[in-house]
Automatic annotation (TrEMBL):
<protein>
    <recommendedName>
        <fullName>DoxX family membrane protein</fullName>
    </recommendedName>
</protein>
<keyword id="KW-0812">Transmembrane</keyword>
<keyword id="KW-0472">Membrane</keyword>
<keyword id="KW-1133">Transmembrane helix</keyword>
<feature type="transmembrane region" description="Helical">
    <location>
        <begin position="72"/>
        <end position="104"/>
    </location>
</feature>
Amino acid sequence: MTPLTARFAARQARQLPLRWSVGAFLLNSGLSKVDADEELAEQLHGFAVGTYPFLSSFEPKQFVSLLSKAELALAAALLVPVVPAAVAGAGLTAFSLGTVGLYLRTPGMRQEGSLKWTDQGLPLAKDAWMVGIGLSLLADGLPGLWRRCCHR
Protein backbone atom coordinates (compact mmCIF):
# COMPACT_ATOMS: atom_id res chain seq x y z
CA MET A 1 0.00 0.00 0.00
CA THR A 2 1.46 3.36 -1.00
CA PRO A 3 1.53 6.24 1.52
CA LEU A 4 -1.15 8.07 -0.50
CA THR A 5 -3.42 5.02 -0.51
CA ALA A 6 -2.88 4.55 3.23
CA ARG A 7 -3.83 8.19 3.92
CA PHE A 8 -6.95 7.83 1.76
CA ALA A 9 -8.00 4.65 3.58
CA ALA A 10 -7.41 6.28 6.98
CA ARG A 11 -9.46 9.33 5.96
CA GLN A 12 -12.32 7.13 4.78
CA ALA A 13 -12.25 5.09 8.00
CA ARG A 14 -12.25 8.30 10.06
CA GLN A 15 -15.33 9.54 8.18
CA LEU A 16 -17.43 6.41 8.66
CA PRO A 17 -18.74 7.16 12.19
CA LEU A 18 -19.77 10.66 11.09
CA ARG A 19 -21.38 9.46 7.90
CA TRP A 20 -23.17 6.50 9.46
CA SER A 21 -24.52 8.29 12.52
CA VAL A 22 -26.07 11.15 10.58
CA GLY A 23 -26.99 8.89 7.65
CA ALA A 24 -28.95 6.56 9.96
CA PHE A 25 -30.67 9.55 11.55
CA LEU A 26 -31.72 10.94 8.15
CA LEU A 27 -32.78 7.50 6.91
CA ASN A 28 -35.13 7.15 9.88
CA SER A 29 -36.42 10.70 9.46
CA GLY A 30 -37.04 10.25 5.73
CA LEU A 31 -38.76 6.89 6.18
CA SER A 32 -41.02 8.34 8.89
CA LYS A 33 -42.37 10.86 6.37
CA VAL A 34 -42.95 8.47 3.44
CA ASP A 35 -46.54 7.73 4.49
CA ALA A 36 -47.24 11.01 6.29
CA ASP A 37 -50.94 11.68 6.78
CA GLU A 38 -52.57 14.96 5.82
CA GLU A 39 -52.38 16.36 9.35
CA LEU A 40 -48.62 15.82 9.66
CA ALA A 41 -48.08 17.13 6.13
CA GLU A 42 -49.98 20.32 6.92
CA GLN A 43 -48.08 20.75 10.19
CA LEU A 44 -44.64 20.36 8.62
CA HIS A 45 -45.54 22.45 5.59
CA GLY A 46 -47.00 25.26 7.68
CA PHE A 47 -43.92 25.32 9.90
CA ALA A 48 -41.56 25.46 6.92
CA VAL A 49 -43.60 28.11 5.07
CA GLY A 50 -43.44 30.38 8.13
CA THR A 51 -39.68 30.60 7.66
CA TYR A 52 -39.33 29.97 3.93
CA PRO A 53 -42.40 31.55 2.23
CA PHE A 54 -41.42 30.29 -1.25
CA LEU A 55 -42.42 26.80 -0.05
CA SER A 56 -46.07 27.90 -0.10
CA SER A 57 -46.09 27.07 -3.81
CA PHE A 58 -46.06 23.37 -2.83
CA GLU A 59 -49.07 21.47 -1.55
CA PRO A 60 -48.47 20.03 1.97
CA LYS A 61 -48.36 16.38 0.82
CA GLN A 62 -46.09 17.28 -2.11
CA PHE A 63 -43.77 19.20 0.24
CA VAL A 64 -43.50 16.30 2.69
CA SER A 65 -42.93 13.85 -0.16
CA LEU A 66 -40.06 16.00 -1.47
CA LEU A 67 -38.66 16.43 2.04
CA SER A 68 -38.77 12.68 2.59
CA LYS A 69 -37.04 12.02 -0.72
CA ALA A 70 -34.36 14.61 0.04
CA GLU A 71 -33.68 13.04 3.44
CA LEU A 72 -33.51 9.55 1.93
CA ALA A 73 -31.19 10.66 -0.90
CA LEU A 74 -28.93 12.42 1.57
CA ALA A 75 -28.96 9.36 3.85
CA ALA A 76 -27.92 7.17 0.91
CA ALA A 77 -25.09 9.57 0.00
CA LEU A 78 -23.82 9.41 3.57
CA LEU A 79 -24.26 5.68 4.13
CA VAL A 80 -22.64 4.58 0.86
CA PRO A 81 -18.95 5.40 1.23
CA VAL A 82 -18.29 5.50 -2.52
CA VAL A 83 -19.99 8.91 -2.62
CA PRO A 84 -17.13 11.41 -2.18
CA ALA A 85 -16.99 13.06 1.24
CA ALA A 86 -17.06 16.52 -0.31
CA VAL A 87 -20.28 15.73 -2.19
CA ALA A 88 -22.00 14.17 0.84
CA GLY A 89 -20.69 16.98 3.06
CA ALA A 90 -21.95 19.70 0.72
CA GLY A 91 -25.42 18.13 0.62
CA LEU A 92 -25.55 17.68 4.38
CA THR A 93 -24.32 21.22 5.03
CA ALA A 94 -26.93 22.75 2.70
CA PHE A 95 -29.77 20.66 4.12
CA SER A 96 -28.86 21.24 7.76
CA LEU A 97 -28.38 24.99 7.26
CA GLY A 98 -32.02 25.01 6.18
CA THR A 99 -33.14 23.38 9.42
CA VAL A 100 -30.89 25.65 11.51
CA GLY A 101 -32.51 28.55 9.66
CA LEU A 102 -35.88 27.31 10.93
CA TYR A 103 -34.45 27.33 14.46
CA LEU A 104 -33.03 30.84 14.16
CA ARG A 105 -36.01 32.46 12.40
CA THR A 106 -39.03 30.81 14.04
CA PRO A 107 -40.44 32.60 17.10
CA GLY A 108 -40.47 30.51 20.26
CA MET A 109 -37.55 28.28 19.31
CA ARG A 110 -34.99 30.36 21.22
CA GLN A 111 -34.99 32.28 24.48
CA GLU A 112 -35.52 36.00 23.89
CA GLY A 113 -32.29 37.73 22.82
CA SER A 114 -30.28 34.49 22.97
CA LEU A 115 -29.23 31.49 20.89
CA LYS A 116 -30.18 29.22 23.82
CA TRP A 117 -33.08 26.98 22.88
CA THR A 118 -36.47 26.64 24.46
CA ASP A 119 -38.09 23.24 24.98
CA GLN A 120 -39.83 23.70 21.62
CA GLY A 121 -36.56 24.66 19.91
CA LEU A 122 -34.45 21.70 21.03
CA PRO A 123 -35.44 19.40 18.12
CA LEU A 124 -34.12 22.02 15.68
CA ALA A 125 -31.20 23.31 17.75
CA LYS A 126 -29.64 19.87 17.73
CA ASP A 127 -29.35 20.10 13.94
CA ALA A 128 -26.31 22.31 14.48
CA TRP A 129 -24.31 19.08 14.87
CA MET A 130 -25.28 18.17 11.32
CA VAL A 131 -23.82 21.46 10.07
CA GLY A 132 -20.58 20.61 11.86
CA ILE A 133 -20.45 17.10 10.41
CA GLY A 134 -21.27 18.39 6.92
CA LEU A 135 -18.51 21.00 7.09
CA SER A 136 -16.05 18.40 8.42
CA LEU A 137 -16.81 16.03 5.55
CA LEU A 138 -16.57 18.88 3.07
CA ALA A 139 -13.21 20.05 4.44
CA ASP A 140 -11.90 16.49 4.59
CA GLY A 141 -13.03 15.64 1.07
CA LEU A 142 -12.22 18.79 -0.88
CA PRO A 143 -8.46 18.22 -1.27
CA GLY A 144 -9.04 14.75 -2.73
CA LEU A 145 -11.86 15.94 -4.96
CA TRP A 146 -9.70 18.84 -6.16
CA ARG A 147 -6.83 16.47 -6.97
CA ARG A 148 -9.07 14.05 -8.86
CA CYS A 149 -10.94 16.60 -10.97
CA CYS A 150 -8.54 19.47 -11.50
CA HIS A 151 -4.98 18.09 -11.46
CA ARG A 152 -4.95 15.44 -14.14
